[in-house]
Amino acid sequence: MSTINSRRKYDREFKLEAVRLITDGGRGVAEVARDLGIHENLLYNWRRRYLDDTVHAFPGKGHLKPADEELRRLKGELTDVKEERDILKKALAIFSKHPR
């Protein structure tokens, strides 16, 4: 069985606990990574993401941080408004033509 395509997935609680061990527990990244069986770089990335936004760190697959979700919603709304504007422009052009 090939392990190339099988990536391990870690839930939010696991990541938070791993980061807590190095930030609050006073343990080193290498030690915690070795104890948890993960690569040090992965733990460094988790710590960076956690420190960037402690409240919304690790939102999960398919979930966005509130600011990103708002941006996605606004982009969709802008697309809809542009389509409506273009339809109204075309309708105005059609109805404003003078019959010959």
Strand content: under 5%
Query: How far is the first residue's CA from the last residue's CA?
Result: 76 Å
Q: Number of DSSP strands?
A: 0
What is the average of the pLDDT values?
Answer: 84
Helix share of residues?
55-70%
Q: Which word captures the global form?
A: rod-shaped
Order of helices and strands: HHHH
Structure description:
The chain is 63% helix and 0% strand. 8% of the residues are buried. The model has no long low-confidence stretch (mean pLDDT 84). The protein folds into 2 domains: 8-62, Arc Repressor Mutant, subunit A; 64-100. The chain has 100 residues and is mostly helical.
Nutshell version of this structure?
By secondary structure, the protein is an all-alpha fold. It is 63% helix and 0% strand.
Task: Write the SSE topology.
Layout: H1 12-23, H2 29-36, H3 40-52, H4 66-95
Helix pairs in contact: 1-3, 2-3
Looking at this protein, list some descriptive labels.
100 residues, 2 domains, 63% helix, rod-shaped, Arc Repressor Mutant, subunit A, mainly alpha
